[in-house]
Amino acid sequence: MKIRLFLLALLFTGLVSCDKNDSVIITEKQLLLGSWVSPVYQDNLITYTKSSELKDYAYGFSFGPDGKFIERTISGWCATPPVVYDNNNGNWSLSGIDKVIIVKVANWQGEAIYKWKIIKITENELKLQILSKNFNGQN
To answer: What's the predicted TM-score (pTM) here?
Structure first.
């Protein structure tokens, strides 16, 4: 009797541990983390490519896991070569329901507030719709 119970328990354990649904669900917030560079503009949509780091002499930004945001952009108002790029620090949040990213970041004008809607996100591509850009109270 004890052997039957042992074999039955062993069989049950084997069946339960063979669950075929071992997939990992990656959220949009997890996919956002990291650096995004090489913007391609089309109307009010911008498509970025994921990168291991920000480029030295080009626009890009990074989403940190703790809500920190870094925007690499031209360091002042003048875009005449030679152009100098600088990192601007801020923070970001994501509304999970409507997929809207809100970014507040310091820049040479004071502060910028961006609202972007995620249109598409994969491990290598981020497509955003620009909802608003606000620089020190100006649209």
So the answer is: 0.77
